[in-house]
Write a structure and sequence with these properties.
The protein has 218 residues and is α/β, with parallel strands linked by helices. It has a domain of 152 residues: Rossmann fold (3-Layer(aba) Sandwich), CATH 3.40.50. It is 49% helix and 15% strand. It is built from eight helices and eight strands; from the N terminus they run βαβαααβαβαβββαβα. Helix 2 packs across helix 4, helix 3 packs antiparallel against helix 4 and helix 4 runs parallel beside helix 5. The two termini are 12 Å apart. It is an enzyme of class 2 (transferase). GO terms for molecular function: AMP kinase activity; ATP binding.
Length: 218
């Protein structure tokens, strides 16, 4: 299957993408992983991206598109793939369509993870990270530490990342509404969007998505 996963920040895209890709036995292709891999391997696209990032500039669409297309051409992606974070705007969606046409393949579904905006803010702004080990993550209401401000694992100080402040989260949502939401309408016009309510347990959300994909494959 070939799937695009969309949704606002805090919708759980990364978590759901990993579970879905594993269940479907297809590679999970995320823009974050693409950038890290290309930069660490020193590819021409990776060097271009790094130059823009070092200059404090946004990486142009053509660089991101090039990385995504290179990854989708890899042998393990021949049976299908799950795209997470790409496309993120209309230009990238149109480039993806062109790539699919050239390779005589098509998308099976665009899964839109739906989460109320207040819940997005609650999820992200409530997150607390351990200064000693960033893999130790807590949440002030969802998964609070035993002692406020102290990591259960190592006793390190818990803090809120600047990116997780409510003000920053709302700015990220503004960018999402402006740049990424239009691709949902773009794919809706093609009849490819399926909205997945993303509230509840992770396993419940995964099952909703799997049920939808099974129905499409039937």
């Amino acid at each position: 299957m070939r799937i695009v996963l969309v949704g606002p920040p805090g919708a759980g895209k990364g978590t759901q993408a990993a579970y879905l890709a594993k269940n479907l036995s297809i590679p999970h292709i995320s823009t974050g992983d693409l950038f890290r891999a290309n930069i660490s391997q020193g590819t021409p696209l990776g060097r271009q991206a790094q130059d823009y990032m070092r200059a404090g500039q946004l990486v142009p669409d053509e660089v991101t598109i090039g990385m995504a297309e290179d990854r989708m051409r890899q042998p393990d992606a021949a049976p299908g793939f799950l795209l997470d974070g790409f496309p993120r705007n209309l230009a990238q969606a149109e480039a993806l369509d062109e790539f699919l046409r050239e390779n005589q393949i098509s998308l099976d579904a665009v899964l839109d993870l739906e989460v109320p905006e207040d819940e997005v803010v609650r999820r992200i702004a409530g997150r607390r990270i351990c200064r000693n080990d960033s893999s130790h993550v807590f949440h002030v209401t969802g998964a609070p530490p035993k002692t406020e401000g102290v990591c259960d694992e190592c006793g390190g100080e818990l803090y809120q990342r600047e990116d997780d402040s409510e003000e920053t989260v709302r700015k990220r949502l503004e960018v999402y509404h402006r740049e990424t939401e239009p691709i949902i309408d773009y794919y809706k016009a093609k009849g490819q969007v399926v909205t997945i309510p993303a509230l509840g347990k992770v396993s419940e959300v995964t099952q909703r998505a799997m049920d939808v994909l099974a129905a499409k494959a039937a």
